[in-house]
Each structure stands twice: as C-alpha cells, then as structure tokens.
C-alpha cells in the first residue's frame, strides 16, 4: 500500500468514524461539544491504555462542535432528500397531517407528518419540524408548507 492510499484509507475511516460519533450524539440528544471535550479524550485514553501512546497519536477523527453540527446537517439533508425522493416516486400518493404547538418559550413549532406506502408497508415520517418565525394563522402555515412542496418539486 502506498502512502497516498494509506492516507486516503485513513481519511475515509476517520470520516466514517466522525459520522458514526455524530449519529450517536444525535441519538442521545447530547450537545455537539461533547465529542471533542469528552468522547475524543476518552477514546485516546482507552487506546493509550490498551495499545500504547504511539497509536493514540494517530487518532485524527474530526470531532469539533462545528464538524459535529455539520455532520448533523448532512445526515438530516440525506434523510430529507431520501424521503422526498420516495414521495415523488410513490404510485399511491401520500397524506399529510399538521400539528402546530407552542413550546414553553412561546415559540410556535410546526410538525408535518407524511403517510405513504414504501415497499409493501404503510409508513409515517416527519416531513417538517420547524419553529415558525411568524404568527400561526392557517393561511401562513399553508403558505409555508406549500412553499416547501414547491421548493422540493413535490
């Protein structure tokens, strides 16, 4: 294996590890900063104890809070684009259900759930979950959701 291939392979592994850590952080609902301030330090401590200091220096997984935040967005966009592709390709159409609520800070939150057939099974997915920067009249909610569908050609 050449050095160039080694670096590419190691970078691919580091990128995959970064996405895996980001996914686990999102699943647990933890703050982005935990990756760099706790997880990376713990991984280095374990590697140092189990394998040795020289291997711990090789840990180059990008785990800064901005990187983790970017990974969250990448994963969200990947999932959203996949759902939109499935809705566009659906032979049976889909239905949507709206729920608008106000949280404890008096911010309006819109939740749009889409029901559709995927494969041979009925499936429900969250299509939109956004805080609304405006009053929550029916017309404004309709316009917001309508623009989402237009922007995504659904």
From TrEMBL:
It comes from the Eukaryota. This is Transposase.
